[in-house]
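Figure S7 source data.
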Amino acid sequence: MSRRYSAWALLRHGITGEAWPPAWRAPELKPSYSAVIVGGGVHGLATAYYLAANHGVTDIAVVDKGYIGGGGSGRNTAIIRSNYLTPEGVRFYHRSLRLYERLAAELNFNLMFSQRGHLTLAHSDTSLRTMRQRAEVNKLCGVESEVIAPEEISRLVPCLDTSDAVRHPILGALYHPPGGIVRHDAVVWGYARAADALGVHIHQDTEVTGIDVARGRVTGVRTNRGPISTPVVVNCTAGWSTLVAGMAGVRIPVQTFPLQAAVTEPVQPFLDPVVVSGTLHVYVSQTDRGELVFGGSVDPFASYSTRGSLEFAEGLAAHVLQLMPSLAPMRLLRQWAGLCDMTPDFAPVMGRTDVAGFFVDVGWGTYGFKAGPVAGEAMAECVATERTPELIAPFTVDRFAEGRLVGEKGAAAVGH
Ligand code: PYC
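Tokens for the predicted pyrrole-2-carboxylate complex:
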């Protein structure tokens, strides 16, 4: 633990009320940087951190039009897992989970990563077959996953109604012990602090309004605070990814849909694993503070709204109570939505583009937060070496024109 955050400092600040030193600086915006990363969420900050830590590139600006972690990184349900469907996806998220496992030590910041297991329920023969397929692909890629029967599910989550007296009886589940939850704002702040300490400049309230390209190469970005000249721009945005890419003349096949979530009042711990039901369009986990965090499917219509709707809350309550009837007395405290950039195959768009120096790390759909560390690591390598790392080669933008889709819809937490 650094001296700034020692137990002695904690005591002194607690007793005297002395202000804490800022966890990252607020530097002047320089007129030029070696690289500008657009988007101060977990992807942008992780890319900056790994560029500095793994490749010695520190002359970087991370710019965000709002505050860091204010977009998808602060609006997700903080689920970490690697039990995907395609070998490309499983290998990629497996690396992310491994990075998450040692991230608190690496960043010297408590991320509250809790590997409490992850259960995806199957309510039909078809989904049981998909779970079996996922379990086999997972095992072949070295990821711990197995299909378990209702008796075992009931032992892991006693509050689940595993009887067959319900509309959608539980036939089995994909059980993934290494999955779990993490404190999402801590991940953002941990990367921000560590990147800042290595010399990266973080500029909040700094909106990119244009990207300059000359003779097929990026030459700079324009912002609401003035122009920056740079040979490298990395688009790490969600929600605005097509708009930022469009500024460089790059088209990516993404449509943006809100994904709603909600949180209850805190109660005593009773739910250990994360529970997902695609058929009932719901996933739920209990935080260390005791709240239940719920999410559902993306909204049926493309939009940029980040407000919750009554329709969602009603549907959510109905579905949750079919799974866990004893939750009926609990009260919802808050609702919100995040923006999900959906691609045709539910896999991301990563790497170089036809514009030299313009890189993309976008199209994360509902999978973005859990990919933050591996995406940052791989994008940093891609930018620093100008080569596409093997792990992200399946996700390049040219796959759409070449018909190399990576169909990852079957690994979605809920139906979309
Ligand atoms: O893929 O685990 C997931 C997920 C949960 C919420 C949104 N996506």
